[in-house]
Amino acid sequence: MSFTEKNLIPNAGLLLAAVLAQRIGLGEVVDQRLQLAEHAASSGAKALTVIGSMLAGGDSIDDTALLRTGAAVQLFDGTRAPSTVGSWLRAHKWSNVRQLDAVSRELLARLWAAGAGPDDLSGPLTIDLDSSIVPVYGRGKQGAAFGYTKVRGYHPQLATCAQTGMVLFSRLRGGSAGAARGAKSFLTETVSRVRDAGASGQLTVRADSAFYSRAVLGTAVKHGVDFSVTARQDKKVRAAIEAIDEDAWAPIPYWLSTPEVSGADVAETTYTAFSGKDALEVRLIVRRVRPTPGSQLALFTTWDYHAFVTNRPGDVLQIEADHRRHAVVEQRIAELKSAGLAHLPSGKFMANAAWLALAVMAHNLGRAVGRLAGPDLHTATASTLQRRIFTVPGRLVHSGRRRHLRLPAAWPWAHAIEQALVNIQVIPLRC
User: Fold this and answer.
1) pLDDT value at position 293?
2) Eight-class DSSP state of 244
């Protein structure tokens, strides 16, 4: 065995993401928007180096060296060394992180305009809000702390689009931050981003009980956004549930359901959330679940109740089922953590905030490639796209003063790769 082959490219499928980034002018947008006091030269190339590494599964600064092996330096000739990328990331201040946020906003708008967004921008879209702990394993990370999970780490907020799987907005916070801290401004900016990307239909925000607050619901109403938010079961909510008449419960299809005994029922009642000037008249929709046989819960209670508040019109069964689909946000977070967000690699908080912004851009760029590849990869996850597209090996061949990229014969997803490249090449070149 020897490491001597100079014409192989371990991640040749990254060519699709590179061409897409070139067509929409991502590198140029970074150069225009990002204004670092130090290490500012070729910021676009450095950002694309990090993004390309993340698409191939990289989760550390050193992993950017993946793009400088074999013949990859000929295919991706603008990449930068890990040491250069590290110095560039550590030069970020909070104002620079916000400039990267502006870049990700522009990226989202350009991808959606290029046909890689929702199928119908005038139709309804769903925004899922959540937060997640990104653990760290040392004490030298600025801002890392123990939170409610008793795990040392950071606690970023994320907003995702249910229809596309893309991340609409992200914000890095210290590990001790509450799940919904800053949620009002976070939701406001998320809605602004979606509108700026061209979405004109009705928006709905879904969230768990951590986001059940006057600020979040009031902000949704202010911006004309429907909401579906799990309610914390305080005394007032429990009293409203207990007051629901037994005849009001309707059975729903659920695990362990039978024609004779329903595993779960749903009912609704009117409810006034909060009080004073912030009071909101909402629908309180409650799902009650029969404990599974043999569980400890079955020894102490007849039903387990799950309630959420909403201002959405429509059939209660459909709305309740849609609210449960909020769980898809966990899959999006898992996708981020499968690559760029596996951990935050720097000891500097602002460098890690910049890393998160780049991880979001990589995720959205990868999702866009999948949506442009046709039905087989239209909803593919990040790890699936890595295996089927981005990490396909290739050989760079020189013939007749031209370079040819040869990919493996009988590759199962060759058609999807070819389809994506065709769709990407017809996107008007922007700069």
Assistant:
1) 59
2) S
Q: Is 244 within the bounds of a domain?
A: no
Angstrom distances, CA of residue 184 to CA of 92, 104, 221, 375: 25, 20, 12, 37
CB contact at 8 A, 219 and 187:
yes
Structure confidence by residue, pLDDT tens digits, 71-120: 998 889 889 999 999 999 999 999 999 999 999 999 999 999 999 999 99
Q: Please tell me the total count of domains within the chain.
A: 1
What angle, rounded to 10 degrees, do the helices at 94-111 and 26-33 form?
150
Which pLDDT does position 292 carry in this prediction? 63
Q: Is the pTM of this model over 0.90?
A: yes
- Considering the domain boundaries, does residue 33 fall inside one? yes
- Which residues, at least 6 apart from 250, have a Cβ–Cβ distance to it below 8 Å? 265, 266, 267, 316, 317
pLDDT of residue 261: 60
pLDDT < 70 positions in the chain: 254-262, 292-301, 431
Residue pair 266/284 in contact (Cβ under 8 Å)? The answer is: no
* pLDDT single digits (tens) 332-345: 999 999 988 998 99
**196: which residues sit within 8 A by CB, 6+ positions away?**
105, 109
pLDDT at position 330 is 95
Alpha-carbon gap, residue 377 to 365, rounded angstroms: 14
The pLDDT of residue 103: 98
> If you compute the radius of gyration of the chain from its CA atoms, what whole number of angstroms results?
24
Residues in contact with 288: Cβ distance below 8 Å, sequence separation at least 6, in sequence order: 249, 264, 265, 266, 267, 303, 304, 305, 306
Looking at the domain assignment, is residue 106 inside a domain?
yes
Helix or strand (DSSP H, E) at 288: strand 280-289
How remote is the C-alpha of 178 from its chain's centroid? 20
Residues in the chain: 431
Helices (H), 171-252: 183-196, 214-222, 235-242
Is the torsion defined by CA of 335, 330, 375, 193 positive or negative? Answer: negative
* Among 77, 69, 61, residue whose Cα is nearest residue 10: 69
Neighbour order of strands in the sheet with 226-230 = 167-171, 157-161, 125-131, 203-207, 226-230, 304-310, 280-289, 264-273, 250-252
Laid out side by side, the sheet with 145-146 consists of 134-135, 152-154, 145-146
In whole angstroms, what is the distance from residue 138 CA to residue 309 CA?
A: 40
| Structural domain includes residue 320 | no
Instruction: Round to whole Å and give the CA distance between 387 and 113.
Output: 27
Q: Which domain holds residue 357?
A: 1-121+346-431
